[in-house]
Design a protein that fits this description.
Number of domains: 3
Helix content: over 70%
Number of helices: 26
Oligomer: single chain
Strand content: under 5%
CATH architecture of the largest domain: Alpha Horseshoe
Length: about 475
């Protein structure tokens, strides 16, 4: 029997339908070694056939997800690897629909946890824009499913449901989509949940005790771990059923172990160890990005503390690491930017230490260069209102840069976020004594912001000021007139 399954890995994949039917039967085989080998072979088929296997995904995923509820650790690991391969190589929307059909309402909480875990990986892979696009076969099915997962009785499934919810909440159309696809009662629950998540954070991944016990008791399973200081991407022997180390999404046990290792370094009492932890995080973002992305909220909660601590050596190391991390993780950093940004600007952008001040500016520039500027606009405008000193001047100038980048693409978003900032600045301009901190620099930054907005909006800028006080209108007209003269 095993020889027959092995042959399917070497035959012509044009006859995939026959093999899938055969493998589908063998996954249910009562002999665990046969079932495990069939699951592993399915993983290889996902990697080889890719879109060619899309038509069979619903039935195959139902069988695999049901198998993930078994207590046999070898089979659970093989199923996890096969589903990882499906997520990485098959058509994303088809995979999402297959996962929703196969496991979202399963009676076994282990199956629901497995479904939620792989659904999270897939949602973070395709991005919030696509998920919230309003597509009937995607948004209409996924949003109610995520709402259900976020309230699941299983702690592990609930964790991943809330992680998806927090990831999607950064999108500007999130609340509009909630109103369209879920009931008013559920909307209130989800909004409360998102508020709590943004305030207190997502927390650590709940421990999958069954999986963890099994992983510790497998001395001959072929899994290889490196030390916390010289960690390399997780690897395994051929028999363990891993299909591609780079594209592999780590299992729950790997993620839990990783969190313990990296947070242990970042939160060490020895500042040198904390610096090594920051360096290790940069290396992990380059070598095993999926491992970092899978734990991004927990990891960057620990990283944020390094930005806020009193040791300037650690502060500097964290600030210098941020542009590298942002460049490597790109859009995935949008999940944590609202948490990290205040830690960068509140202290370091007014620092008298030139190295730290320069590193903070570089970190902010890295965010602007690598992330969606529309997401950055709100935190930049909020901080520009309430900061003092040179930090306020720098952020006003950065808002001007964001306006130049963003206005041609999303004028309404710019006007909605930036005009309230402009009215605030004009109403508390240096003449009123409120913003005396930087004198001419402050006036110059406000004038530059007016000039940029006037360039893009033209007479509409003056029209928008009609609802403001006479003093604000007068200040605006003077600045616009002076900029046109120049």
């Amino acid at each position: 029997m095993l020889q027959n399954i092995a042959v399917t890995e070497r035959v012509n994949y044009t006859c995939s339908g026959c093999f899938l039917f055969f493998l589908h039967l063998q996954v249910k085989n009562l002999r665990s070694c046969v079932a495990r080998f069939a699951v592993m072979t399915l993983g290889h088929l996902f990697a080889q056939l890719r879109k060619g296997i899309d038509q069979e995904l619903v039935e195959v995923s139902k069988t695999l997800l049901h198998k993930s509820g078994e207590t046999n650790v070898f089979i659970r690991q093989a199923v996890d690897n096969a589903l990882d391969s499906m997520v990485q190589h098959c058509t994303s929307i088809r995979v999402i629909n297959a996962l929703l059909a196969g496991g979202i309402s399963h009676l076994n909480p282990v199956v629901r946890r497995c479904t939620a875990q792989h659904l999270t990986t897939l949602v973070e892979k395709i991005g919030a824009d696509r998920v919230l696009s309003g597509a009937k076969d995607l948004t209409e099915r996924l949003i109610p499913a995520v709402t259900k997962l976020a309230q699941d009785s299983s702690q592990e499934a609930r964790y991943f449901g809330r992680r998806i919810l927090l990831f999607l909440s950064a999108h500007q159309d999130f609340e509009k989509i909630l109103q369209k696809y879920i009931s008013d009662k559920e909307q209130a629950i989800m909004k409360d949940t998102v508020f709590i998540l943004k305030t207190k954070g997502l927390g650590e991944i709940p421990q999958d005790t069954t999986s963890a016990r099994g992983r510790r008791s497998l001395p001959g399973s072929g899994l290889v771990r490196a030390s916390s200081l010289t960690r390399e991407p997780m690897s395994s022997s051929k028999d363990a059923g891993q299909f591609s180390v780079k594209s592999q999404v780590p299992s729950i046990a790997d993620k839990t172990e990783y969190i313990k290792q990296i947070t242990g370094q970042l939160e060490s009492k020895d500042f040198r160890q904390r610096i090594r932890g920051i360096d290790q995080l940069v290396a992990d973002c380059e070598c095993t990005p999926n491992l970092v992305i899978g734990n991004i909220l927990t990891v960057f909660d620990a990283f944020k503390a390094r930005l806020l601590e009193s040791n300037t050596k650690v502060n500097l190391c964290a600030l210098e690491a941020l542009p590298k991390i942002t460049h490597l993780l790109k859009e995935h950093m949008t999940q944590v930017v609202c948490n990290l940004f205040p830690a960068i600007v509140d202290t370091h952008l007014n620092s008298k230490n030139n190295a730290i001040y320069s590193a903070a500016l570089d970190a902010i520039n890295g965010l602007i260069q690598n992330l969606d500027n529309a997401i950055l606009l709100q935190p930049f405008c909020s901080k520009a209102q309430f900061l003092r000193g040179k930090a306020k001047v720098d952020l006003i100038n950065k808002v001007s840069d964001l306006v130049n980048n963003l206005y041609p693409l999303r004028p309404q978003v710019v006007e909605q976020k930036v005009l309230p900032l402009l009215w605030h600045l004009l109403g508390t301009s240096p003449g009123s004594g409120t913003n005396q901190g930087q004198g001419g620099n402050m006036r110059g930054a406000i004038a530059h912001l007016c000039e940029v907005l006037d360039t893009h909006m033209g007479p509409a800028l003056t029209d928008c000021s009609v609802s403001q006080s006479i003093s604000i209108q007068k200040s605006l007209n003077e600045l616009v007139k002076n900029s046109s003269v120049v």
